[in-house]
Queue: 2 jobs
Job 1
Amino acid sequence: MSQDLKTWPHHELGKELSNWGRWGDDDEIGTLNFVTPQKRVRAAGLVKTGRNFDLGMPFDKDGPFLPGGFRVNPLHVMTFMPSDTAQAPDGLITADDMVVMGLQAATQWDSLAHVGYDGRFYNDVPVGTVKTTGGATRNSFAKAVEHLISRGVLLDIARLKGVDRLEDRYEITAADLSAAEERQGVRVESGDILLVRTGWYQWFLEGDRAHFMGDEAGPGLDTCRWLHDREVAALALDNWACEIWPSQLPGANIPFHQVAIRDIGLTLGEMFNLEELAADCEADGASEFLFCAPGLKVTGSVGSPITPMALK
Amino acid sequence: MSQDLKTWPHHELGKELSNWGRWGDDDEIGTLNFVTPQKRVRAAGLVKTGRNFDLGMPFDKDGPFLPGGFRVNPLHVMTFMPSDTAQAPDGLITADDMVVMGLQAATQWDSLAHVGYDGRFYNDVPVGTVKTTGGATRNSFAKAVEHLISRGVLLDIARLKGVDRLEDRYEITAADLSAAEERQGVRVESGDILLVRTGWYQWFLEGDRAHFMGDEAGPGLDTCRWLHDREVAALALDNWACEIWPSQLPGANIPFHQVAIRDIGLTLGEMFNLEELAADCEADGASEFLFCAPGLKVTGSVGSPITPMALK
Amino acid sequence: MSQDLKTWPHHELGKELSNWGRWGDDDEIGTLNFVTPQKRVRAAGLVKTGRNFDLGMPFDKDGPFLPGGFRVNPLHVMTFMPSDTAQAPDGLITADDMVVMGLQAATQWDSLAHVGYDGRFYNDVPVGTVKTTGGATRNSFAKAVEHLISRGVLLDIARLKGVDRLEDRYEITAADLSAAEERQGVRVESGDILLVRTGWYQWFLEGDRAHFMGDEAGPGLDTCRWLHDREVAALALDNWACEIWPSQLPGANIPFHQVAIRDIGLTLGEMFNLEELAADCEADGASEFLFCAPGLKVTGSVGSPITPMALK
Amino acid sequence: MSQDLKTWPHHELGKELSNWGRWGDDDEIGTLNFVTPQKRVRAAGLVKTGRNFDLGMPFDKDGPFLPGGFRVNPLHVMTFMPSDTAQAPDGLITADDMVVMGLQAATQWDSLAHVGYDGRFYNDVPVGTVKTTGGATRNSFAKAVEHLISRGVLLDIARLKGVDRLEDRYEITAADLSAAEERQGVRVESGDILLVRTGWYQWFLEGDRAHFMGDEAGPGLDTCRWLHDREVAALALDNWACEIWPSQLPGANIPFHQVAIRDIGLTLGEMFNLEELAADCEADGASEFLFCAPGLKVTGSVGSPITPMALK
């Protein structure tokens, strides 16, 4: 329990925007419920040229994490090599591999079991439902996997502001989102998967992990109501925290995550590479596309590594 | 080098069906080149009702592998728990997790670096390009990831034969594939991702791992020319080996894999759950859909875990 | 908190035998304090012939654990192979490897952070000192590692009872320990590391994992006072639980562990292979030796894999 | 095969010093054969005061490896937490953990399967005996584990030279070893486990990983004959490579390893913390002790993590 619950403004906001019970007491996917079959049909209809954009960060030892932290870069190891079939009469060669990785390593989804507060996750789920052995028994990403195909919309806040990348700790506001819509001639609708570009991914592309993983631009609490009202299904950014870091609210820890994930029931995506897609959207004036990033159905998982795709 | 290269019939067949050089000497994705932008546009156009089918096996400790083999079931572990933020002033709780798993654990793609013979992989790539440190430096699955969205077609061989599941070691032939097309009123075309149902997945659903991982029904060498001529982009089955096991060719090891992957350049999928999708195709008479299973862009990877989706 | 604390007889016993505070409020190693420098000098003096006995179970995929449980057998993987140095001008070949394993896989020590009750570990350490990230911040095995060299004494309860191995669920009593001392002509003293043989390891050697990991013979609560009074430094058995399983006390979970580890502060060892050593002790009539099993200093660890050695 | 075998001076030296066949064609432990039972008896007799020195580096995420290399620091994860037994009627709490680590992470032994040249490991073992699945089928560390208890002797080259730590790339010579013996009044004998101090470990203690893992002082090829003639059983240093790095022989890769491991059959130890032990040896004038570092019996292993102990 937080020390003085009533005084935390993000918790007050969360109460206002809460979607608990909206899709029943047993619901585990929150705003992904906005991705209806009809939504998917319309999303598929956006594919006009068949161009495909890979929005994923590679999973490998040269990933974003600095040494010594609690998240580590993926470890890829071979488990079978061509030399292991040297005796095959017909000359067979074969290879197998394995990976040791955080489900939050590189490009990823945060499920509704990832963040909560005051002992509760989304939809009044008690903290004890996440177990060391077995993982998330409620709100697991495994429940979300099939819902992550919908219309994608990109809002480019860096271009809105006329910069390559936003400044450290720039707070993206609801007004920014609306202004980006207006500039790009697109409107975020119910069931959309919203991709917000800060330009932050350029730090990673340039090899500056310390800056990429440092104080970052991102949405502030101010955007929560906007995201709630527009019925966004999932939100993804091109930085590591999916929100301004550190928070501008003293004493609060990732308050945007708290409200977005726990109260609104919003699945969040991190470390998306939006550079090429954004350039294309700017070039052709079309900021909507078929977005597809189902991830992996790992039982009890809190998150999922993904290589997301956008088809235009 | 195999003991007497000229006498192996599957290698003779492979020479005939070889796609080496067809897309240039540097090509690393083989028949996935058939998935053109135009193909993706047409595939997206197949989404009529928005119903989504999850074709994935869960990734967890209760996976298909029996103890003692070289492939093991996924190990999911929590790396951060709500108790770790007990001191957060605002009551934050959060969870993180990791996985240790073969990239061939459960539902998966085999890349063109997975199988070859006589010291060569697809497109004349030497065996030494697969390294213990770094993995596949050529033909890696990381190159394939963005190409695995296309039209999917399901051919149901079990229903063709009027059985729940095919018999152990039943060899699926080219004639079976053509007969299934005729029965279902669909024709496999260039760039399709072909899903072939044997009913084998039922052994897994029933908990009989030993049977599921044992002698199985699947395509024989006879289907290679058919798959080549139809310009299939990728092939996936609902069993563990994607081909009849053991081979009917004495002394040969997974000869279908050898020809399909190394010579034709065909990406193979394994352990797809086709039960629900097949029932739906039978019910509505539509065996085509938008298929989406991009997998994970793991640098140097030979395969990829996936949770594939079919949208109708 | 247990439902009705006062009524649990093992907790009453624990209170009587408690060593909390005996070596100061900051002590983290409990009865390993009995292993004094003088004790080590005398233990070294027991080496008469230089014969060495390996008491370890191999660490590999064919370990004791059945599939589906929360403990899994070790996974050993190569990370560097001779083929990776194929370009070395001077013909260098080299190999490296890694392991994924539970610190409780195969032969192992349980530290004082492994088991407690009513929210407390040994020496009044609160449950929250074990963290998901960082592990045991108190009572970690890392603190114990240098103390696990002392005089070892083997008591062979199977031979005492005239059997190859004890019956399932046979409860070893204090009287058994004393009788074994008398039969073998040895007396357990302060600072000894006591090895108690049930013959159970034979189930593993015969490949019967299910029996090995099943209901087992082992010490009951009755032995706690004896172990406490004799000032045993550490206790190890040749079975998986180091105590009779299941407990004969209805509703109690590994009550011997609870009292031994939490209250007495006794480090426990499991899955020791005592077969060869016991035969030698029987043959030469000497049941004491220099025992050495320091284990690994893994920061925050709760246990340690070991390959223990006995020198006579 | 190296490009011009006859011209490599370290291979010429290796031929001269070869112990192949000395202990039979099936021998897999090389100079560890010098550790006879009699040797162990005499070693145990060295324990006079019972003081124990822990020579190990902690195994954890803050280990010596810089990011991006093929060796990574250990990853310790909890697999069972007290919260997982919240329902236990008697209040039981318990914790379990696991580790993902290179067997060469932190303080470790290199087995005779670790390094060779020209397609052969120690005792004419072909390169193909190291398999990706299964590891080292010959010369595995699992064979060595019980032999790593013997007399230990410390030679302090840093103190010999009057410095805290040797300069980068200082080459330790046979003359240095003899001079250190003379200064310390000790003589290295058959079956000894020799610890050579460079002072290099101080870089690690100071947190300068880049320097610790960089160009280092260590034995050159010149010491091989000395080590061979003295019948050293195993050699360990306080740096990462156990030899001068980079080699002073142009084009040669870790040539000391090649001769020592492959030709002499000498087990090598790395990253030993000799600081405290060396100070004690200097203070009391006794440079010999009972050395004990059996390591882990991992089937097929090439190396082993250890926490070595020295008893005086």
Note: The mean pLDDT of chain C is 96.
Job 2
Amino acid sequence: MSFGFQLEATAGAARAGTLNLPHGTVPTPAFMPVGTHGVVRGLSAADVRRTGARIILGNTYHLHLRPGESIVRDMGGLHRFTGWERPMLTDSGGFQVFSLEQLRTISESGVEFRSHVDGTWRRLTPERATEIQWDLGADIAMAFDHVVPGGAPRELAEEGMERTLRWLSRCREEHERLANGRTGAQAHSGDASTSSPAGRAPVRPSARAPQTLWPIIQGGTYDDLRLRSLEGILARGPWTGIAIGGLSVGEPKPVMHRVLETLEPGLPREVPRYLMGVGFPADLLEGIARGVDLFDCVAATRNGRHGTAWLPTGRINVRGAALKGSTEPLDPECDCETCTSVSRGYLRHLFVVEDMLGMRLVSIHNVRFLVRLGEQARARILDGTFDRWRREWLERHRPSAVPAEP
Amino acid sequence: MSFGFQLEATAGAARAGTLNLPHGTVPTPAFMPVGTHGVVRGLSAADVRRTGARIILGNTYHLHLRPGESIVRDMGGLHRFTGWERPMLTDSGGFQVFSLEQLRTISESGVEFRSHVDGTWRRLTPERATEIQWDLGADIAMAFDHVVPGGAPRELAEEGMERTLRWLSRCREEHERLANGRTGAQAHSGDASTSSPAGRAPVRPSARAPQTLWPIIQGGTYDDLRLRSLEGILARGPWTGIAIGGLSVGEPKPVMHRVLETLEPGLPREVPRYLMGVGFPADLLEGIARGVDLFDCVAATRNGRHGTAWLPTGRINVRGAALKGSTEPLDPECDCETCTSVSRGYLRHLFVVEDMLGMRLVSIHNVRFLVRLGEQARARILDGTFDRWRREWLERHRPSAVPAEP
């Protein structure tokens, strides 16, 4: 079977499982590095494989703009395009287009937005977002959702949540149509009002693995809206996975934790849960403790490019003068390519002389740091020591602390 | 024996040999990638190893300014600093400081120059250049030479050549002093007029492999000056290698070829010859045909960062619209990491979205292209088919041509 999830152990709400996808299996909990443009910024597919990542995420919005989904499709799909042969998930573009603020207008049919690349107006609808992801050919496609800002008032949060449910039905319908191989104009129209008579070469089965579609729970910071969203999603099911969106968008951490705790008992046990856009190291452990199986976040590579590295004790800026001449590894406890091959002093030197290798090496460490955190959590869940380990880990980890240097 | 060269075969003036150095052997002819700041720009030591490079070059001028030779020395030398365990050669800084033009003054004792990093005035003398390279700890150190511009008049070329010989004696004396372990103030003074009473921790033998010093032939484009330079060098020998400097600095290619042909018969057969700062692919083959064993040049990585890739048929700009959607490898004949893992269309996409991975992947290809050219030339020399192969290769290779694309 192409899509499946085996739950192997639990420790409180924390879960260890295995996600089966057409391009491979993903032991969970797991962190997914973000491959914005079909590439994890600055890293090759081989670099990412060496971090131990088993699944990566691609951004539909960015790939739609460049190179365009038809190019990716004609080149054999995202896996062949990027050289990443393991599982891949694409977001729906919802989060990106709703972040454009002044550059988009929303209606029931979809979103009109201005490309940040060339200023052209474009249109994303549930059908188009599904079709684009179909062309990209990821293992997992996400439903197109209406995302509202972190502090959104109840009315707006409710509107976004309800619309996301209606759009989910349209995404599902379109996804089934594509999966059933109907390639007529109707199947490929952007939405009901525009037809797309231009024919398309049928995709050969060899170039296209099966794809599954996951829904997204919305509802802002309102517990009852979140529960209604979940209810509506389950009513439209079954699903092979369920995502939680619209968190880590400015609300306080305790609020995010409360929403996760509210949702947890109602989420089907035998389906993986994906917390979108999260997180930092501590967020991973807090999410795992509340039953989350999958995470993604750009912070690992964004911080890496700025020279900020995560350590078990907190974080460190690699540019710091204290690292000059240091022969210590960046993180003596880490097994990544960076920590096992170069010193802090060399990394600092790379940032001082502005060689891009520095950005790459710190990104590799940060990605490995989160991937390994998932691996460690999994091992602790399997051997029954997760809760104590998590508490000790979080006590030791001081996100704002810079370790004292001689 | 730490330093040695075995000549294995010749084909006309072309030579195949093996250079033995403390950190490994180097089959020749060979291209040395340039590691300006102790890093081949944008590439990790592992990346460079995967190109098949057996030796790289570090720039004394750049490493003296950042991080400073004392930092590198205290961190265990360039090999440990950079994670590159194979042989390494450092230039003397002569070429760089003489390139500063308005920012330096020359005297018999040495060169005063202004740092391009912080504007401070610094001093490089034969003794200092030797001492810095000793601290850096490369396998091969280069003598400090007076480099003159490409079109230099005879008088200036003669002055530079004669001074380079006098400086060679001072470099050799200083190098012997360092090698004999004399660590007193005299041994570490910048030059005779300044003493350096500050003590230095003796370097443990384990951190320091033996180092050899190579002289540099100067004399501009004047055959008789070149021969006098060679004569003066041989009189100050013996040497484990001899470099030819001051070429590929603006003079026409036929002039460079003539100088190489003039020198070739007088160069000791059993010593490797290193043509500094050369070359492009065709330059390698022309140099090999005229008896050169070693080359270095920044063009491979500089072109790579600009998206220009070498191909057997010429070169190509990876940004070109013609590459959009192409599933072909960059160079179908190449075995590098880039050509065996991604397509032209993906490389173009990386440059379009300005992901630094593109610069890295094209740099890897270009370095491998030159390393492989050395390997191919060696195989052809060994099997006696070098001359014909070289002629055919050069006929096919059109440096300015961009291959036609559909």
Note: The radius of gyration of chain A is 21 Å.
